[in-house]
């Protein structure tokens, strides 16, 4: 295997890892969104029981609100890293087509 083949193989591996990272991050986002929906549903159910508030209900509500804030933070963080993953994925895809990119660039110049 010569250097050119090894370089192309390394770029293909980088592309595969980037695609995998983006897929995993998107899955984490979906899971976190589902947890947020469940949390909102549970909070709504707790607030609309029609019963007088006990100390236990108060602590449950505080815990659920805290959990909700944690989930919102997790979602923001996942979206932040997804943007970086997509950028890396785009760079990896472009690196696999250097000859085509060079040809397109030179045809645009002419």
Concise synopsis of the structure shown:
The protein is mainly α and 110 residues long.
What would you call the structural class? mainly alpha
Overall average residue pLDDT: 87
Helix segment tally: 3
**CA-CA gap between termini:** 36 Å
The helix fraction, in percent, is over 70%
> Care to count the β-strands?
0
Low-confidence stretches: none
* Shape by Cα distribution: rod-shaped
Structure overview:
The chain is mainly α and 110 residues long. It has one domain (20-97). Helices cover 89% and strands 0% of the residues. It contains three helices and no strands. It has helices at 3-47, 55-95, 98-109. Helix 1 runs antiparallel to helix 2 (55-95). The longest helix is centred in the first third of the chain and has 45 residues, at 3-47. The two termini are 36 Å apart. The model has no long low-confidence stretch (mean pLDDT 87).
Give the helix/strand layout:
Blueprint: H1 3-47, H2 55-95, H3 98-109
Helix pairs in contact: 1-2
List the main descriptive attributes of the protein structure presented here.
single chain; 110 residues; mainly alpha; 0% strand
């Amino acid at each position: 295997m010569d250097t050119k083949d090894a370089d192309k193989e390394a770029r293909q591996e980088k592309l595969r890892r980037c695609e995998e990272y983006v897929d995993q991050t998107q899955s984490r986002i979906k899971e976190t969104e589902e947890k947020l929906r469940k949390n909102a549903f549970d909070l709504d159910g707790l607030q609309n029981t029609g019963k007088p508030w006990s100390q236990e209900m108060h602590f449950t509500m505080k815990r659920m609100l805290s959990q909700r804030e944690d989930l919102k933070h997790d979602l923001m963080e996942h979206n932040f890293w997804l943007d970086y993953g997509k950028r890396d994925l785009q760079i990896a895809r472009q690196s696999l087509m250097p000859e085509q990119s060079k040809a397109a660039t030179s045809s645009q110049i002419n």
